[in-house]
Design goal:
With 360 residues, the protein is of the alpha/beta class. The protein has two domains: 176 residues, 3-Layer(aba) Sandwich (Rossmann fold), CATH 3.40.50.2000; 171 residues, Glycogen Phosphorylase B (Rossmann fold), CATH 3.40.50.2000. Helix content is 42%, strand content 16%. It contains 14 helices and 13 strands. The strands form two sheets. Strands 3-2-1-4-5-6-7 form a seven-stranded parallel sheet, sandwiched between helices. Strands 10-9-8-11-12-13 form a six-stranded parallel sheet, sandwiched between helices. Helix 2 links the parallel strand 2 and strand 3. Helix 1 crosses helix 14. The longest helix has 19 residues. The chain is globular.
Length: 360
């Protein structure tokens, strides 16, 4: 009998890409399965999910505007409409399991599934759980976490430490480092620093890299700097011998393989990738995300000496010193071992095992 699964999660890539990874793994294991997504109208999942090859139903759902709450007067009405649409979808499709990866989009469909007695799984990417997942986790059959300390937000008997689903390419061995440096146009005999700020870019990181680029290169680093699409025009002129500035890096496995050290934000998916590749990293959490997720994620690594944590407002004073520490051979080796020990490479498979258990 063909199985049916509904998956929901969105608003950011951190919720969407794990959801797509789970869908891909389910499709691989159950080629005849029906897989359908639920997303928030107007959000990026409405284009990203169809691009990945899956149908999606959009519902009108949004969070409370905390800075201007009076603009959220219509949120309760949107929620009622979203719940009604999700109920109709669940009745028509009769899914075996509903999976939520976080974000406002997953709220209505998981809530309605739980009311209708349909098994649900919550996948929490962050060290500090989000509000939607905390509420839905109370009645979910399983909560799949990526960090040990996330378990405190959920019923203990239902928590499973699986890790975050990530792109399959990162579960395989990276290509040769020197070959990748040459491929990217860098000197294989010199250390390469990979700077990541997300697809749009990180304003504070970009400013500090630009300000300190000469000193960074004096330390002996070559720099592959992903500045983000929003900042391409501002920084593309800083590409020169030993430095490359790109809006977006298409081939991340090659970039990761070439790197000797990494500067990055602390999004859950990115940190899961860093654990798998086992490279020393300087983590600079964004202070502008809900529940300060990124700081909690970064602390989960730094407390185990698996990464160096620098807060955004400390970069001006600490960036160069910490980059020098990242270049130290002993520090780099020990940090690489520590971060690799936190990797959970079978995350997607383990989550699909739990889904299968519920759908048998």
């Amino acid at each position: 009998m063909a199985r049916t699964f509904i998956i929901s999660g969105g608003g950011t890539g951190g919720h969407i890409f794990p959801a797509v990874s789970i869908a891909n793994a389910l499709k691989k294991r159950h080629p005849k399965a029906t897989i359908h997504f639920v997303g928030a109208l107007g959000k990026m999942e409405m284009t990203k999910v169809p691009a990945a090859g899956y149908p999606i139903t959009g519902v009108p759902i949004a969070g409370i505007n905390r800075k201007k709450p009076w603009k959220s007067w219509n949120v309760p009405f949107k929620l009622l409409i979203a719940l009604s649409r999700c109920r109709k979808l669940l009745k028509s499709m009769s899914p075996d399991v509903v999976i939520g990866t976080g974000g406002y989009a997953s709220g209505p469909v998981l809530l309605m599934a739980q009311r209708m007695g349909i098994p649900t799984i919550v996948q929490e990417q962050n060290s500090y759980a989000g509000i939607t997942n905390i509420r839905l986790g109370k009645k979910a059959q399983y909560i799949c976490t990526a960090y040990e300390n996330a378990a405190r937000f959920f019923p203990k008997t239902h928590v499973r430490l699986t890790g975050n689903p990530i792109r399959e390419v990162f579960t395989k061995a990276l290509p040769n480092q020197n070959t990748c440096k040459k491929q990217l146009g860098f000197d294989p005999s010199k250390k390469l620093l990979l700077v990541l700020g997300g697809s749009l870019g990180a304003k504070a990181i970009n400013r500090q890299i630009a300000k300190n680029l000469v000193e960074i290169m004096k330390q002996g680093w070559q720099v592959l700097w992903q500045c983000g699409k929003l900042y391409e025009k501002e920084y593309q002129g800083m590409t020169k011998d030993g430095t490359q500035v790109q809006a977006f890096i298409e081939n991340m496995p090659v970039a990761y393989a070439a790197a000797d050290g990494i500067v990055s934000r602390a999004g859950a998916g990115t940190l899961s990738e860093l654990c798998l590749i086992g490279k020393p990293a300087l983590i600079i959490p964004s202070p502008n995300v809900a529940e300060d997720h990124q700081t909690h994620n970064a602390m989960a690594l730094s407390e185990k000496h698996a990464a160096i944590l620098v807060k955004e407002n400390e970069m001006n004073d600490l960036l160069l010193d910490k980059l020098a520490a990242l270049k130290d051979p002993d520090t780099a080796k020990n940090m690489g071992i520590a971060i690799k020990s936190l990797a959970l490479p079978k995350a997607t498979e383990d989550i699909v095992d739990l889904i299968d258990e519920l759908s048998e």
